Fold this sequence. Notes:
Elements: H1 8-16, E1 25-29, H2 33-45, E2 49-53, H3 56-63, E3 69-73, H4 81-90, E4 97-101, H5 106-114, E5 119-122, H6 127-140, E6 143-147, E7 150-155, E8 160-163, E9 166-167, H7 172-183, E10 188-190, H8 191-198, H9 208-220, E11 231-234, E12 238-241
Parallel strand pairs: 1-2, 1-3, 3-4, 4-5
Antiparallel strand pairs: 6-7, 7-8, 8-9, 10-12, 11-12
Helix pairs in contact: 3-4, 7-9
Amino acid sequence: MPKSDRPAGLVAELDNALYDAIMTRVLLAEDDPAISEPLARALRREGYEVDVRADGRAALEGANENPDLVVLDLGLPYVDGLEVCRRIRADGRSVPVLILTARADEVDLVVGLDAGADDYVTKPFRLAELLARVRALLRRHPTEVGSAGAVVRIDPDGRRAYFNDEELQLTAKEFDLLRVLVREQGKVVSREQLMREIWETAWFGSTKTLDMHISVLRRKLGDDAAQPRYIATVRGVGFRFERDGKG
């Protein structure tokens, strides 16, 4: 839906979330297509990458793919939402969990929070409220990568990045680029994807601008271009942010 067609009361709130949502991965576990389909569309429209799972078993599989946020219906088939949440926490995962529940009873909500959920929304819910809670949870769980001796930490709300607890002085594009690389740590991010996400343009062969920004980021991280520890070049494909800073 074009911005001009959105309800006027939501425009400012939704637009403020647009950057923070750049391809953040959301696992949406909901068995009712009447809820999951429009909700997934809304989340994708705001820039989130959404993985929809329709039952508890599939939700647990999706949780193994390290989403940035889990939106979890309590009434899932096979394995209910409470048990999914308990297993996520039992596996040591700290991913924020937002539960969706048709149960307004305070006891049920307390049980959900005790199972490890971070927040809840009661059905029927307002889209604006759910998106606001999603943003709040993501702000409270900044992305971190690396070992205790070499940590890159991203603060999406403040648009700040830290290396070894010292703030990096980055331009807007440098910050955007580092955030995407850290988000995909350990995975190769193609030049096409970076050009599309950071510069909002299709890739037609020349990526000099991207290469220049990678070079600057390496310098600010103390990386040796010949033997980078953090941002590795995968020839013919793109770049990979190393999990342990060993390159």
